[in-house]
Amino acid sequence: MAPVLTVTDKAARKVAALATKEGRPEPTLRIQVLTGGCSGFSYRLAFDDATAEDHVIEGSEGVRIVVDRESARIIKGSTLDLDEHLMGGGLKVRNPQAINECACGESFSI
């Protein structure tokens, strides 16, 4: 059975650095799938606390990623990675279930 999400070390370091910059002692990042965007779904990444219903993924650097149940179904088997390109770089969810991604890279369909 595929894990909900795998976190690369590069992504974990970036999340930890962003949390430190924002003064957050515990780097807990929520990944949520929202309906919308030109292809049907988009990702929302924000620092947040875990709830009892969340899937909690432990990454390196003390990073925790939390995903709600509905979003977990859509991102199952994905990887959170860091894209270091100058244009369009940043934290990226690499979702093997996504069959189409819009040209701007902000939304996807499954």
Largest sheet: 6 strands, mixed
- Round the mean pLDDT to the nearest integer and report it: 84
CATH homologous group name:
HesB-like domain
The strand line-up of the biggest sheet is 4-5-2-3-9-8
CATH class: Mainly Beta
Outline type: globular
- Output the radius of gyration: 13 Å
Provide the CATH architecture. Answer: Sandwich
Structure summary, number of beta strands: 9
CATH topology: Hypothetical Protein Aq_1857, Chain: A
Q: Strand content of the residues, in percent? A: 35-45%
Helix content: 10-25%
Low-confidence residue ranges: none
Between the first and last Cα atoms, what is the distance in angstroms? Answer: 19 Å
Give structural notes.
The protein is an alpha+beta fold. The chain has a single domain, classed as Sandwich (Hypothetical Protein Aq_1857, Chain: A). 18% of the residues lie in helices and 38% in strands. The chain has 2 helices and 9 strands, in the order βαββββαββββ. The strands form 2 sheets. A 6-stranded mixed beta sheet has the order 4-5-2-3-9-8. The protein has a 3-stranded mixed beta sheet with strand order 1-6-7. A hairpin with a 5-residue loop joins β2 and β3. The chain starts with a strand and ends with a strand. The model has no long low-confidence stretch (mean pLDDT 84).
Jot down its keywords:
110 residues, alpha+beta, six-stranded mixed sheet, three-stranded mixed sheet, 2 helices
Quick gist of this model?
The protein is of the alpha+beta class and 110 residues long. The protein has one domain (5-109): Hypothetical Protein Aq_1857, Chain: A, CATH 2.60.300.12. It contains two helices and nine strands, in the order βαββββαββββ.
